[in-house]
Amino acid sequence: MNSVVYRVLSIVPICFVVAVVVFSLMQMAPGDPAAMMSDDFASEEQIEQVRRDLGLDEPVIVQFSLWLGRVLTGDFGTSLFSKIPVTTLIMQRLEPTISLAAGAMLVAIATAIPLGALAAVMSHSWVDRLVMTIAVLGFSLPSFVLGYGGVWLFSFKLDWLPVQGYASLGSGFGPWLKSILLPSLTLGLISAAFLARVTRATVLEVLSEDYVRTGHAKGLAPRTVIVLHVLKNAAIPIVTVIGTSIAGLLSGVVIVESVFAIPGIGSLVIDSVLKRDYPVIQGVILFLSIGYVVVNLSIDLSYRLFDPRIEG
Amino acid sequence: MTSFAPALLGAARSLAATIRRHPSSAIAAAIVAVLVLAALLADYIAPHDPMAISGRQRLRPPSEANPMGTDNLGRDVLSRVIHGAQISLLVGISVAAVSTVVGSAIGVLAGYSRYVDLVVMRIMDGLMAIPGILLAIAFLAMFGSSVTSVIIAISVPDIPRVVRLVRSVVLSLRELLYVESARAMGAGPMRIIMRHILPNAAAPILVQASFLCASAILAEASLGFLGLGTPSEIPSWGNIIAEGRSFIGSAPWLLFFPALALTVAVLAVNVLGDGLRDALDPRFRRRI
Description:
The complex is a heterodimer. By secondary structure, chain A is mainly α.
């Protein structure tokens, strides 16, 4: 129990550093934030009033604590342009982003784990070399290149899938799947490259364990040994890597959303950067980073369910 | 002259043996060499001026005069791709250098002092929690886009990776006997770090630097593609792809050739990094 509490508390300093980094970046932003948050025709007094209301006339440390207090209650500020709360903007854009990230993760896991395991079981054969060559290629292929390759082939040449855009789940499962298929494949196959390399390395390590040799010696079918003994024991390191690779996946989401014109959180951040809408940039980075930390914490804690050897 | 010939022959023989043993690394090294030469000699080898606009030459498919076709302003794509190598390599090499030097300095300090370690590693964990491209984008939003700010924006998210690697290497090296005996002989921490630890940590740091170079080339192109990277008037590969994206149906060569150059460059640097790791660190050979 103690170790669970310790693990949960360990994310506090990480989130604090994220908050400090995000806050300092915004402090360095050019321009007067009070003037930017006021109406275009606001008088000098009105701007001063905004400055006082937001605590912008206080010392930086006080400003930081005020801001952190607001963030902790879920108040990420409001957009300088639409005047909509940042939290609302993020929630509006959450569905496409989660659809894309989950779809990509599914594609990555479904391709990387069988291929990586196969490469390890048949290590140093032509299968191994082929899988690892594809993995290095996937590592080096920019997601927007793969994405446009897919658009060119499946949308322009074959006319199977829509070129761009997103159909929400509310408009029906079929249209949603069609709109999300190519983006998920693009991002998923890129993420699969790294995962396949890690799966291969982990499975190779487990294959040399004594209990695997025992499994073979007592006459178990090779498939049983692989599925029951090897993959089960390789699961934890692989799942850990899946967790940490979410940061890369989130970076990929920003680019793939731009390729396919998907109105998700990635497009929100790009639009905000082009408009210099600082509160939105700040809110999105904070939201995604803390989301990443929390997902990794949950993965870490879930090991205790899967593996009784890890102390609860 | 006569004593020089056998030495040259020996060198050529060992080079041939290396190529036979690691054909993919040799090809990768050759591609990187070609790219470096193309970048250095871009002004001389590019058939046209990469900026020269020609109304009558718009969106021409690949031909003898323009082997990679022309873009929507009639500029020669081949000349633009050759000049694009300059930005990609400049950013790739600079990011690898900046993040390796800064990251190694912090990593050595963290590995050497428990107090520094405690604070520094929490900061690094926090930095690593922010998706790299978002941190770079936020940085560019604050400081505007120039080649220098792109280099810094891509280096900052890479630094924690170097710190972690160097710290773990230092932690394992500082317990070794030869470091202990140097300390017993009265060597100060600075001397131990410079003379005994860093030279032995060089191999993994160099391998990491090559991978950082590859990912930086990719990141620079991604930022250019998003319209947030190097100023759009500079023909970087990401910018050329970003400009060509609206013509994917009518003029796919605008995307195809810069995308091919980018992929081949990143692949070559990655494969070279793999080869470097195999050559320098036999323990990691063919593991990941």
